Amino acid sequence: MAETRWLDDEEQHAWRSYLRMNKLLEAALARELQADSQLSLPDFEVLVHLTDVPDARLRVSALARSLQWEKSRLSHQIARMARRGLVTREECPDDGRGAFVVVTPDGRRAIEEAAPPHVETVRQLFFDVLTDDDVKALTVLSERVLDRLDTHTP
Predict the structure, then answer these.
(1) Of 65, 68, 89, 100, which one is least surrounded by beta carbons within 10 A?
(2) Which parts of 10-141 are beta strand (E)?
């Protein structure tokens, strides 16, 4: 059995700071989004993924993959959003088992109204405290870790 490679003090500080920043930033973004638009962060994520594709529609399985969510979580989220008129679920005519999630006009309006204040909050809480070099370094670091995660098999 391999010996544990414990984090040194600097690594531990960096790791814990990253975790704390991530948790606090997500909570602040969720609070601001809810206050500004009555959308939850999961509502917003679903709408972003749907409005990023040409027909504003995705198969349930493709949406779950792109969000990195379990299908059951997505199913509950879609049901909540459908009750509020933000999305609809349509059966796939080519495949009786498949279904699409489609943005409604109310859903499109909701994200178009929510996006400007949300991006301003992202800018105020995150980008405004970073230099151009920080953003470039963050991009390099994020892509390096994402590449590792893409190839990681537990």
Answers:
(1) 68
(2) 57-59, 87-92, 95-103
**Residue among 42, 33, 40, 49 at smallest CA distance from 103:** 49
In 3D, which of 30, 50, 35, 63 has the Cα closest to residue 107? 50
- Report the pLDDT value the prediction gives residue 2, as an integer from 0 to 100: 86
Tokens 């699409």, located at residue: 100
CA distance 128 to 130: 6
Q: How far is Cα 123 from Cα 140, in angstroms, rounded to an integer?
A: 19
Cα radius of gyration (the chain) = 19
CA 114, CA 25: separation in Å to the nearest integer?
17
pTM of the model: 0.89
Q: Please, which residues bridge with residue 58 across strands?
A: 101
What are the average pLDDT values for consecutive 10-residue runs of the chain, which has 154 residues?
94 98 97 96 97 93 94 96 96 79 97 97 98 98 95 83
Which residue, 99, 108, 121, 147, is CA-closest to 35?
121
From 88, 86, 89, select the one nearest 113 (Cα to Cα): 86
